[in-house]
Amino acid sequence: MKNNWNVTFDTITPESVEEGDYESCGYELENVSLREALDVFGSRASEANEWPITGTVQWFDGDYEVIRSDDIYEQKKLSLHIPRQITSSSRLRLARYLGLKIGR
Fold it and tell me: Which of these, 84, 68, 61, 4, lies nearest to 37 by C-alpha position?
């Protein structure tokens, strides 16, 4: 259970948005501890895969951040994926920790 956390990413550019797709996407981290995942993801989420957030939430998204601004304008967003075996109450505690409001 300790090392089942994943952090994924997607990047967009003006061209990829125009085409309705991501520039790139994939795993930032695979099968790591929650501590390692949060070290990369951070301590704030902007949204989750569901609203209102309940005990069945599966992932949290961060905000897009500019990662390169030379000749190419590119933005990157990280997502924290919750392992299946994590309990509903732990999912809700994590949502609160990440600054999201729990709805009912």
Answer: 4
Give phi and psi for 31, each to the nearest 5.
50, 55
pLDDT tens per residue across span 42-65:
999 999 999 999 899 999 999 998
Rounded alpha-carbon distances, angstroms, from residue 74 to 57, 78, 100: 28, 14, 26
Q: Are 78 and 62 in contact, with CB atoms under 8 Å apart?
A: yes
pTM summary value: 0.89
- Return the half-sphere exposure (C-beta side, CA atoms, 13 A cut-off) of residue 96: 10
- Does 66 score more than 90 pLDDT? no
Which sequence spans correspond to the domains of the chain? 5-97
